[in-house]
Amino acid sequence: MTVRGVKNDAEVELEHSAASSLARLRPFVGLAVPLLAVAAALAVGAIMLLALGTSPIEGYRAMITGSLGGADKLADTAIKAMPLMLVGVGICIAFRAGVINIGGEGQIIAGAILSTSTALLVPDLPSAILIPMVLIAGAIGGGIWGAIPGGLKAYLGVNEILSTIMMNIIAAHFLSFLLQDLLIAEGDVKIQQTERLSENADLPLLPGGTRLHLGFIIALLVAVAAYILLFRSTLGVRLRAVGHNPHASRYAGMPVQRSIVEALAFSGACAGIAGAVLVFGSQSHRLIGEGGAAGFTQSAGFNGIVTALFGGLHPLATVPASFLFGAMLNGGIAMQRAVQVPSAMIIALNGVVVIFVVGSLRLRERLQRWFDDRVGIETSKERA
Amino acid sequence: MGDFFTVSALVVTFASGIRLATPFLLASLGETLGQRSGVLNLGVEGVMLLGAFGAYYTVLKAGSQPLALLVAIAIGIVMGLLYAVVTLVMQAEQGISGIGVFLFGLGFTDLAFQKWVGTPIPIARLEPWPIPGLSDIPVIGEVLFQHNPLVYGAFLLVPIMTYLISRTTFGLNVRAVGETPEAADTLGVSVNGTRLVTIIVANVLASLAGAVVALEVGNFQQNLTAGRGFIAIALVYFGAWRPFGAMVGSLLFGFVLALVNQWGALGIISGSASSLAAMAPAVLTIVVLVFISNRVGQPAALTRPFDRSN
Amino acid sequence: MKSSGKVIGKLLALTAAMIMVLAACGGGDSGDSGGDEAGPFRVAIVAPSADNDVAFTQSIFDSVNRVGESRDIEIASSTGLFVVEDAASALRGYAEEDYDLVIAHGSQYGAPVEEIAKEFPEVAFAWGTEVNTFGLANVSAYTVRSDEGGYAMGAMAAALSEAQNIGVVGPIEVGDAKLYVDGFKAGAEAQSPGIAVNVNYIESFSDVALAQEAATAFVANGADILTGTAQMVVGATGVAQSEGVAWFGTQSNQSSLGADIVVASQVYHWEVVLEDIIAGIDEGDLGGESHLLTLENGGLEIEFNDAYPLDGAIKQIGEDMVAGLKDGSIKTGQ
After folding, report:
1. C41-144+270-293 against C147-261+308-327: fold identical
2. Do A348 and B108 touch (CB under 8 A)?
3. What is the block-wise mean pLDDT of chain B (310 residues), using blocks of 10 residues?
4. Sign of the C-alpha dihedral, residues A244, A247, A250, A251?
5. Pairing label, strands C300-304, C262-268
């Protein structure tokens, strides 16, 4: 900076234009780094595909057309993205409040159980009443399942990572119990599923002739609501303050304990809505537990965490992030089918993508800081 | 119920509990050390699966159990180095990259198994090594001293790890790096060097935990470890970041699992009640933690990458 | 946490860019290989576990391959799809690709089959294990009386057991597993009233280590015969092998899991059903019927392990039971 005065006008002009072109380049760094990371991960995947004796080009083409090629495929991708979005949005609330919620799986299950029970109890209510009811029941179920570890942490000092993992196990076995006993459908062959739930509770399809249903709108609304809650409400300010510095918040007179319970309850409620959407938006229109709970949660409780962190723990950024992962999951099935590789390949590839993308985020931050430093020269000059 | 309170049934239950606790213990000991240095690894389950497959495949092809353990250790070192690159060099978010490791391990082992093995071919299981003298003690001998060497090894690691963390310079460095990395750095402790070591040890132990499962079962199948890695992580929190605590947690979880299993075998619980009973280990783990109500804080720098330029 | 607006903008842009990039290179034709006049008969299989699980999923693959011995077939498959909605996408994908027969091998796949079969009335679907064809002309249902083989093997097990104590390792008490276990128990009790047949449902289809502990507990409690069903039984067969305890298998031939201890396996020959279904498709009949594997129609078979030195008298008991079940003089009570 000290040499600034020595430069002649031409030099300053040159540096100025260089800096402003740098400034124009900056957003592309934000894009290029994660894109390169995805490309690198896909390159690793290509090697795996080659090792399996199949064509990576054909495989990836199927992945892309299978997830993005046409309205039907895009709709399927959106359907895959819904639970990720809902869980991810909930994760944003919890993590921002400093609570690590690993209990998405259990909260999805709890939401699904309560909403399914509601539809079984009052199947004849008209759709306009029953659909909101099952969604609210889902939110309550998930909310309770989140509030329990919240309360345990806030008032009894039980670490939430421990309790949410345990609550997942408890919920999965409870679901298995219900689907062997109270909720199982009548029939000769005992299958771990409920009867087909009331048609009045089916989430209606959106216009457009695809399988996209109301759950999509609900997921978007929940994302917006979570954004308002976190960033446009006093409750959100408090939750974030507690997450940022619980000790300072306590001295400032904020109810830290209550905030922890609230954060986990809201987080669980979002996952619980995902549970209801997974049941009432499914093609089966029933709660299925055969072969373990993951058969119906689609592991969204875990993938939702990845989605939220990928979206920088911002509810609205979680929306596109969920699409990205939805596309990968949906395209993966198409790829598996097209080149006939074991579906395990898709899971492994998913892992590689996650590692590479997360690894690149910090690199992106550094590159951006480097750009900001350069652009900073320019702005300070202008001020001078 | 009367069947259960016989000496032989109780011996079976406790011995089975110790066996079931072993993979939890190995993995949670490693994760305890890692977290004490400020590194969270949610990828334990993935590394366990890789270690399990590596050990299984080695015995299948080479027929040697010691070699299988060496292979598992090597896999742990490789995964540790990879995770170190991701967390220390790239400074990636630790929770999420660990989930990536889990997915990779889950998919890759299944893929490798389908391509290289095909069908679950049985291998020789680990034979118990009764400890001469001690194993002859009635009841106690049968419960404690008639296990395979890996079980003894895992429990021997508890005092070793405790000593390592609380009595050695290395342990002091680990704790310093996990609590106040900046201060440790000023004092000349290599933050990332220390973490590199703990990451490798944690991954090696996770890999060995998987190997224990595979060698105990004497076979392999997709998702062989069935979520044990995630429970091991929870048990680190249960144990309040102490090796002894991790052992108590592992034993508690293992015993309750064994108890439920034994009751199932004796017909004491049956039908849909078995799924309610299957919740017991998880419920009890939470309940016990409520009562012992430890309020020990986690390592202050957990999940926080260290960057001198910050 | 960084400023949020930037992150959103970037992610939106990132997603948009990715879609464009991907769509640009993905515009190609998917290369439909239709026109299958003289080509092989094309079968697609969608199943919940791996095709080499020595259990449920392997049974359908082995059967389709046996069909392939007598005619030219091409097999495509998606396995490991325990997520029902993923299975639905795979089923729909195969239907779009005009496979001659799409097999949904899992009773939990029923609802998507019903939905998708309506959308593709010209594609033949088969699903099991169930009896419901949803009144659709292009859906065949198939299921198996796994209790029959269970009954015969239970009787042999009871005759073989010196301790009169048998352990059964089950997954979750539903479906095909429950049917087999109940049949086995009934057979053992019919042969030897008062015998102890303990069943432990370990609440998992996949926890091999828990299956192993369940088997260990049975042996420690005095069982000298074990059986079990679903893919996690490899944990139990390992115990049987090292403890020298006899094992009865089901779903697929499990002799490979322990040459010295597997007495016999109940094997599902789905080809009996598949050949019917395929013959129908050849004549333009896409389904609408429900098929059942029984001992009588040859869909179920008890395959003995030649390496196991089974007493001839006990084998005779099994064969008598099979004969009785075939002619209806013996009922399993299920």
Report:
1. yes
2. yes
3. 73 93 97 95 95 97 96 98 94 84 94 90 91 89 91 97 96 95 93 96 98 94 90 92 95 94 85 85 89 74 78
4. negative
5. antiparallel
Sole residue written with tokens 């400023």: C3
Say which of A35, A190, A314 has its CB closest to residue C7. A314
Diameter over CA atoms, chain B: 67
What is the nearest CA distance from B164 to chain C, expressed in angstroms? 31
Whether residues B286 and A349 touch (CB distance < 8 A) is answered with no
- Do A63 and A331 form a contact (C-beta atoms < 8 A)? yes
Q: Higher model confidence: residue A197 or residue C8?
A: A197
The topology under which CATH files domain B7-292 is: ABC transporter involved in vitamin B12 uptake, BtuC (1.10.3470)
d(CA A54, CA A52): 6
Q: Count the helix, strand and coil residues of chain A and give each as a percent rounded to the nearest 5.
A: 75, 0, 20
Chain C residue with CA closest to A322: the answer is: C15
Instruction: Name the residue facing B275 among C203, C217, C221 (closest C-beta).
Output: C203
A164 CA: distance to closest CA in chain B (Å):
9
Span C228-260, pLDDT tens digits: 998 899 999 999 998 999 999 999 899 999 989
* Among candidates A102, A161, A352 on the partner chain, residue whose Cβ is nearest the Cβ of B104: A352
Q: pLDDT over 90 for what percent of chain C?
A: 68
Region A259-268: what's the mean pLDDT? 97
Assign domain C147-261+308-327 to a CATH class: alpha beta
CB contact under 8 A, B217 and C208: yes
pLDDT of C190 strictly over 60: yes
> Which residue, among C6, C11, C51, C103, would best test binding to A if mutated, counting the most A CBs under 10 Å from its CB?
C11
Nearest to B160 by CA among B51, B33, B300: B33
ipTM of this predicted complex? Answer: 0.90
CB contact at 8 A, C218 and C196: no
Chain B closest-CA separation from residue C202 CA (Å): 7
| C207-236: pLDDT as tens digits | 999 999 999 999 988 999 999 998 899 999
Q: How far, CA to CA in Å, does A167 sit from each of B62, B89, B282, C66?
A: 42, 34, 7, 46
Of A373-377, B73-77, B218-222, C25-29, give the lowest mean pLDDT range.
C25-29
CA nearest to C333, candidates C226, C198, C181, C229: C181
pLDDT at A14 over 60: no
| Chain C residues inside the 8 Å CB shell of B225 | 209
Q: Would you kindly state where each structural domain of chain C is located, as residue ranges?
A: 41-144+270-293, 147-261+308-327
Query: Quick check: A351 contacting B, CB < 8 Å?
Result: yes
Residue A67 pLDDT class (50, 70, 90 cuts): very high
CATH 1.10.3470 matches A56-340: yes
Q: Which residues of B touch C167 (CB under 8 A)?
A: 265
Q: What's phi and psi for C228, nearest 5 deg?
A: 180, 165
Nearest to C238 among B16, B217, B264 (CB): B217
Question: Hey, what amino acid is at C247?
Answer: W
The domain over range C41-144+270-293 is classified in CATH as 3.40.50.150? no
Q: Which of A173, A286, A317 sits opposite C11 (nearest CB)?
A: A317
* A–B CB contacts, 8 A cutoff, strictly below: 152
Q: Which of A48, A113, A159, A180 to mutate to test the interface with B (most CBs of B within 10 A)?
A: A159
Contact A188 C106 (CB under 8 A): no
pLDDT for C34 equals 39
Domain ranges of chain A: 1-54+361-384, 56-340
For helices B169-179 and B191-217, give the axis angle rounded to 10 degrees. Answer: 100
pLDDT in tens, A34-62: 778 888 999 999 999 999 899 999 999 99
CB contact under 8 A, C80 and A344: yes
3-state secondary structure of A210: coil
